[in-house]
Design a protein that fits this description.
By secondary structure, this protein is α/β, with parallel strands linked by helices. The protein has one domain (2-537): 3-Layer(aba) Sandwich (Rossmann fold), CATH 3.40.50.1820. The protein is 33% helix and 15% strand. It contains 15 helices and 15 strands. The strands form two sheets. Strands 1, 2, 3, 4, 7, 8, 9, 10, 11, 12, 13, 14 and 15 form a 13-stranded mixed sheet that branches. Strands 5-6 form a two-stranded antiparallel ribbon. α5 links the parallel β10 and β11. α12 (391-417) packs across α15 (524-537). The protein is globular and about 70 Å long. Mean pLDDT is 91; it is low at 1-16. Keywords: Glycoprotein, Hydrolase, Serine esterase, Signal.
Length: 548
């Protein structure tokens, strides 16, 4: 009888393990449940840090608070405070989210354990530095490839990216959250069955920008093995705020602040401003100069305050060697993400093109600026007014100036300095998961971040065979890069091509469309068009001047 009881207990424990898994952490155990139709366990809403509050709300995150009881990790709706975006400027502003939001989601394959460590892929969400969350996408198509997948929240908007260069508002709180997440992963992921020496950080749009910034920051030394960048770069015009004090000041003035040029008074006003009010002013998806308002900044250095970034990304990329492998690329028509503003912006461009120049260009005088504007009008619009007749030029202009040039510049610098592999791609596949736009009758192409819709699941669906093939190809290549530093490590009927490494001597790239094809010299002419002006007129960012 006793043996029978023991047998029943063992069977119950085995079956429990089939449907749930307990991981013992220093702050307390967490319990994950098995995905209903997959070979992995889901841990949602696992705390990796604690968001500071009150007058410390702009500072670096605090450690996780210990728990006395097991955490059943099933909270799928935790997000950081943000504005609910509808796209309708006349609609009432709706705020949602919570202050205590620094949680991550961990998808663990059943094969992963402390005796069988698997690589880790960490995805950083997008949202123009002011929206989005770690729950905005699901990862089942990646999770089936025997790698641990992690998504997470970080502080966004003014709370995450306000930067005054003061001790109270030093900047980059959202990025410091991400560093805390990577440090937590480094310390704890082995207990889930993850290899802390094989962590790949990926991101899409501004998430890609931050993934590359993380790789360039000294705060992440030893935490990142590889990066995957989808439609974003640390060199993008929107990557670094070049005048962060003005950004904060403009928000403060909109909330009633009387500006008298005193930084300490501005600092004090922002410290005391209600979180809901400054969050409501944080969302800027469509600024004409290819930025989003709040963004990362170059920090001042203070005692007892670990800065995230003290040099410009271009300086770091140009002078330092990087022991990191990179997979990077973009969609062939990134500028389609700007066609919703075409009717309004085309009229504005015809009156004054200056506001549409990228924010990271600065000219010594108006003549130099106007000469370049004339070059743009000739190159993209054939010296004609911006109109529906040259909509393609409008799309190409934003594709190149806002995304493609900076991404390719980053690839070139990594290839010149890195001791490891660099892979470059262009995504031009058009399928059921691509972004919809109003001009599909005349322009066909892949829009900003369209490739990510086939890698992650943004709660959309498709029944097209070609879409599923594209999804399988991308998820296989991405996870093979994570595992082997080679996205085409194994040839198959699905992936019947060898993805050649990119170098400045052999500028290979993978064209991803209905089929895979190796090509060379991606964006060669447009790159030279932009590079000649950036060589002369790039606005290299610096930290805010320290003032009393």
């Amino acid at each position: 009888m006793f043996r029978f009881i023991i047998f029943c207990v063992l069977i119950i424990n085995i079956r429990a393990e089939e449907h749930s898994r307990v991981v013992e952490l220093d702050e307390g155990p967490v319990v994950g449940e098995k995905y209903w139709n997959g070979d992995y366990f889901e841990f949602y809403g696992v705390p990796y840090a604690t968001a500071p509050s009150g007058r410390d709300k702009f500072k670096a995150p605090l450690p996780v608070e210990p728990r006395k009881t097991p955490l059943h990790a099933s909270a799928k709706n935790i997000i950081c405070q943000q504005v609910y975006y509808t796209g309708d400027e006349d609609e009432e502003i709706m705020l949602y989210g919570e202050e205590d939001c620094l949680k991550m989601n961990i998808m663990v394959p059943t094969v992963a354990n402390e005796n069988n460590l698997v690589p880790v892929l960490v995805y950083i969400h997008s949202g123009a530095f002011a929206g989005g969350n770690g729950n905005m996408m699901r990862t089942p198509y990646l999770s089936r490839h025997d790698v641990i997948i992690i998504t997470f929240n970080y502080r966004i908007g003014a709370i995450g990216f306000a930067c005054l260069g003061t001790e109270e508002i030093p900047g980059n709180a959202g990025l410091k959250d991400q560093v805390a997440a990577l440090r937590w992963i480094n310390k704890n992921i082995k207990k889930f069955g993850g290899d802390p020496t094989k962590v790949t950080v990926a991101g899409f749009s501004v998430g890609a920008t931050m993934a590359e910034l993380l790789a360039l920051s000294k705060t992440t030394d030893g935490l990142i093995d590889k990066i995957i960048l989808e439609s974003g770069s640390a060199l993008s015009p929107f990557a670094i705020n070049r005048d962060p004090i003005s950004t904060v000041k403009n928000v403060a003035i909109s909330l009633g602040y009387k500006d008298n040029g005193n930084l300490r008074e501005l600092n004090e006003f922002f410290l005391n401003a209600p979180v809901a009010n400054i969050t409501a002013k944080s969302l800027n998806f469509f600024l004409t100069n290819s930025t989003f308002g709040f963004a990362p900044c170059i920090e001042n250095v203070f005692e007892n305050n670990e800065p995230f970034l003290t040099e410009s990304p271009l300086d770091i990329l140009s002078k330092n060697s990087h022991d990191i492998s990179v997979l990077t690329g973009f969609a062939n028509m990134e500028g389609l993400s700007r066609v919703s503003k075409f009717e309004e912006w085309s009229e504005m461009m015809n009156k004054d093109f200056n506001p549409f120049l990228p924010a990271d260009l600065v000219f010594k005088d108006n003549k130099l600026r106007d000469d370049f504007i004339n070059e743009i009008k000739e190159y993209y619009f054939k010296n004609k007014e911006v109109s529906p007749d040259n909509l393609q030029g409008y799309v190409d202009y934003f594709s190149d100036s806002m995304f493609k040039y900076s991404i390719l510049k980053s690839a070139k610098l990594h290839a010149a300095k890195s001791k490891r592999s660099v892979y470059l791609y262009e995504f031009s596949y058009i399928g059921g998961l691509n972004m919809r736009h109003n001009y599909a009758d005349r322009i066909l192409g892949a829009s900003h971040r369209d490739q990510t819709a086939y890698i992650l699941d943004f709660f959309s669906s498709t029944q097209r065979v070609d879409d599923m093939i594209t999804r399988d190809r991308l998820t296989f290549m991405w996870t093979d890069f994570v595992k082997y530093e080679d996205p085409t490590a194994y040839e198959s009927s699905l992936i019947d091509i060898k993805w050649l490494k990119y170098s400045n001597e052999q500028p290979n790239y993978l064209s991803v469309n209905d089929r895979l094809e190796m090509k060379r010299d991606l964006l060669a002419n447009s790159y030279e068009f932009w590079n000649k002006v950036y060589e002369k007129h790039y606005w290299n960012p610096s930290s805010p001047e320290k003032r009393n």
